[in-house]
Amino acid sequence: MDREQLALLKELMALEFTALEFNLYLDTHPTDQRALMEFNSVIPQLRAVKQKYQERYGPLTAEEPSSYPWQWINEPWPWEICYE
Amino acid sequence: MYTPADRMRLARAYVPFQIFSQRLSPMEGLMKGTIFPELYFPYRRHHK
Amino acid sequence: MWIYEKKLQYPAKVGRANVKMAKYLITQYGGPDGELAASLRYLTQRYHMPTPQAKGILTDIGTEELAHLEIIATLVYKLMDRASIEEIKAADLGGYYADHDKGLYYVNGEGVPWTAAYIQSKGDPVADLHEDMAAEEKARATYEWLINLSDDPDLNDTLKFLREREIVHFQRFGETLQIVQEYLDSKKYY
């Protein structure tokens, strides 16, 4: 995996992690309006980076339309990537 | 939701509720394992 | 239901292959305080939680633990990859090799297979949330002992991430416990 793809993948991980942190916080603080606003502002950023990544490097889930042949199974799978 | 000290009773465990104030940037949060600075308690390695 | 996303939660780094470390680390895959036990514990306890917050947090943390399971698998896979028979023998992993080659299996560091006896589901939400908080502390301690055993800064970077998640989960379970206790009190007295 080239440096550019790895950088975008890490950006995606960071945004998804931020969304998860607010998700767990909001589970026990459902009426915290500030945290809810933060969560709502992260989601469009996450979606944008996810879309950019998928356009360039292929589907992240099997719920994306695929070019021919079926792109979902393309390597590398997550455990095969060199993250160092 | 938040139990003040004078309403706490015996034979019960309490963890104080987090009150959100600040957050780290997405990348800094990912590297630290939390986006909440008040929940960041890094391990200080010790040798026995 | 669950939908698989083809990415890790965190970039799982390994500085160099190290069979001995793989043997220690595999306890977080299939050991008593490992990620499989954590995920299955929370996902089975959620059915008898009385409040929406508790149902949500057990579902979401149980799901995050599956992502941690995948990170541990990736680390073990990378630590074992390309290991020679001599290295496997030197790390005292010959018994594991005879049964699994380098395939991943749910065992602890001594080769004991995973068992449902590692987890509890009491049907009492207060008792179960206490178990969950204890489980997070035990997993945190395990990550600290693993960091003590490892001299690989890349590996330790990932282990520190996973350790910090245990602290955040403990906080969320603690908040959930209070919500559940207040809910049960309100049912009892009013």
Structural overview:
The complex is a heterotrimer of chains A (84), B (48) and C (190). Chain A has 84 residues and is mostly helical. Chain A has two helices and no strands. Chain A has helices spanning 3-28, 33-57. The longest helix of chain A has 26 residues, at 3-28. The N and C termini of chain A lie close together (11 Å). Chain B has 48 residues and is largely without helices or strands. Chain B has one helix spanning 26-32. The model of chain C has no long low-confidence stretch (mean pLDDT 96). The relative contact order of chain C is 0.19. Chain C is mainly alpha-helical. The chains are: A mainly alpha (84), B little secondary structure (48), C mainly alpha (190). Chain A binds chain B through residues 10-11, 13-15, 17-18, 21-22, 25, 28-29, 32, 34-35, 38, 42, and chain B through 17-18, 20, 23, 25-27, 29-30, 34-36.
Helix coverage percent of residues of chain B?
Answer: 10-25%
Q: What string, H for helix and E for strand, traces the elements of chain A in order?
A: HH
Give the low-confidence spans of chain A. none
β-sheet strand percentage of chain A? under 5%
DSSP helix fraction of chain A: 55-70%
Could you state the oligomeric state of the chains shown?
Answer: heterotrimer
Outline type of chain A: elongated
| Average of per-residue pLDDT values of chain B | 90
SS elements, strand count of chain A? 0
The total of beta strands of chain B comes to: 0
Integer count of domains of chain A: 1
Order of helices and strands of chain B: H
What's the rounded overall pLDDT mean of chain A? Answer: 97
Tally of helical segments of chain B: 1
- For the terminal residues of chain B, how far apart are their CA atoms? 41 Å
Which class best fits the helix and strand makeup of chain A? mainly alpha
**Main interface by residue count:** A-C, 28 and 32 residues
